[in-house]
Amino acid sequence: MSSDTTAMEPGPERDIALAGEYVLGVLPAAERRAAERRMEEDASFAAMVESWQSELAVLDDHFAPENVPPAIAARIERRLFGDQGARSPGLWGSLAFWRGLTLASILVAAGLAVAMSGILVPTDDRAPVLIADLAGENAPIGLIAHFNSGNNTIHIVPAALQDDGGHSLELWAVPGDGVPRSLGLVPHDGGLIAIDRSQAEELGEGVTLAVSLEPSGGSPTGAPTGPVLLAGALQ
Amino acid sequence: MSTIASDDELGQMISRIAMGDRAAFSSLYQKTSPKLFGVCLRILRQQAQAEDALQEIYVKIWRRAASFAAGKAAPMAWLVTIARNHCIDVIRARRPDPVDIDDAPAVADERPDPEAAAVSAGEGRRIDMCLEELDADRASAVVSAYVEGYSYQELAEEHGVPLNTMRTWLRRSLIKLKECLQR
Q: Which ipTM score applies to this complex?
């Protein structure tokens, strides 16, 4: 990767043309692959491709909508989610997981009551506390997240979640740009998640918090990999 | 057919899909699959292949949703890009270009364009104004490559010129187009 691409031999015009050829789609397969490799290695070339994509997107008007055979939707869901997904499309979350999730019901009830009365939640009176009510369509329970901007903590109630063995629950923030940021794993034994200042600065009213089901230890990729079980906005 | 969703709505759906939300995926499919199927039929021109392509495209959308950066690309344009790229890959694999394309020179036409400096297009349809600055047949080559997914071979046949000439034309057109778009 060169720091000064304009001084390079082939010249910027040639790259602009190549990026345009790639976006138009006229290149033979081998050259398309070569252009894609270049995009991965050369940020300025990738930027040229993106620029062409957004400029030429106006031509998308030429594509008229067509009726889609109804069977295709089910085929896609089966591909992605297996038979269960196809039988109950739009099923959100893993029922098997919820069945396996042990809730200490007394603790939950007590925890909720305490949380509602505001006694347990470690708050600094002067610091604003935002609350997100996290719920999911097929989730039998909800969680309440209290974000305290005074000490950069998020308190999750109820806390008494038990791992079903192979999974972790991971908490995410989805700020305005729509890119989920991990805030950490929801602890099994205590509902307090400490976040760092840069994470806290991205939290505010309207920011969505979400809980996803991840492999034990959390998402291996830095982005959510499992189903979103619960979500709600900070208010 | 359902009503057209705004880019805001589509962007939110894609963000939720990135979090694994199947309901959002299902909504996105309902809102956008007719358009993307239109892309598939236009480029692939065969019903069965277009159906297969549509499946692959939504599998890619599900898997790549996390890479969608809201605010950077318009959601519908991002979706159409995935669809076009997939369809073009399919036809390039189906009809491999047998001809070896050399590196045709990509030198911009030196011919001065008296109108060019005077043009100040509004955003959005700027590409149309810039296409008008090209000779009509060259502008139509750009549009038909994009919309029909033509290869250089097909463009050369349609315009009755040798393949390398076609490539030189198109590259020059792209450079002129970019100059205009950046003005």
A: 0.84
Q: Contact, A76 vs B58, CB < 8 A? A: yes
CA–CA dist A25, B36 (Å, integer): 16
A31 inside 8 A of chain B by CB: yes
Q: Count of domains in chain B?
A: 2
Residues 43-82, chain A: which have Cβ within 8 Å of B?
A: 50, 52-60, 62-69, 72-73, 75-77, 79-81
| Domain range list for chain A | 5-62, 95-233
- On whether both B85 and B125 belong to a single domain, the answer is no
pTM for the full predicted model: 0.60
Question: Are A228 and B21 in contact, with CB atoms under 8 Å apart?
Answer: yes
Residue pLDDT, tens place only, B1-57: 445 678 889 998 998 898 888 899 999 999 999 999 999 999 999 999 999 999 999
Residue B16 within a domain: yes
| Residues on chain B touching A211 (C-beta within 8 angstroms) | none
- The pairing of strands A167-174 and A143-148 is unpaired
Q: Which of B85, B68, B67 lies closest to B10 in space, CA to CA? A: B68
Q: Which residues from A are below 8 Å from B97, CB to CB?
A: 28-29
Interface contact flag, B174 A57, Cβ < 8 Å = no
Residue of A nearest to B14 (CA): A178
Min Cα distance B169 → chain A (Å) is 11
CB A232 within 8 Å of CB A132: yes
DSSP code string of A202-221:
T--TT-EEEEEEEETTS-SS
| Residue B102 contacts residue B120 (beta carbons within 8 Å) | no
